[in-house]
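Need GRF-type domain-containing protein's 3D structure for a figure. Predict it.
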Amino acid sequence: MTANQFTSTTTSNPGRKFFKCPKPKRNSCGYWQWEDEEYSDSFVGKLMSSLDAFKNEISNLKNERHTLKEEIVALKGINQAEMNKVLKMRVFMMISWALFVGFIAASIMK
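Structure prediction for GRF-type domain-containing protein:
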């Protein structure tokens, strides 16, 4: 008889494959074995190092996002100030042209 393959769903061995007797528990021969070798300490250590590296990268990205948000707020303020200057300049130009046209019209009518 061939053993059935299963995938562990436990928190201590998530996704790890194992074999066990295909018979129901009451009639089982008790056969049970991991498909792979047990995780080595070096493997777990590498995973923990990778996790720490990812945590550092996430922290760095959060700091960079915060800095970018501050820069955007500053640029919006500069942009608003520039728009106010442009608006004032347009009003000045329109008044200047109105006065110029008024003087030309007055000089023609004399």
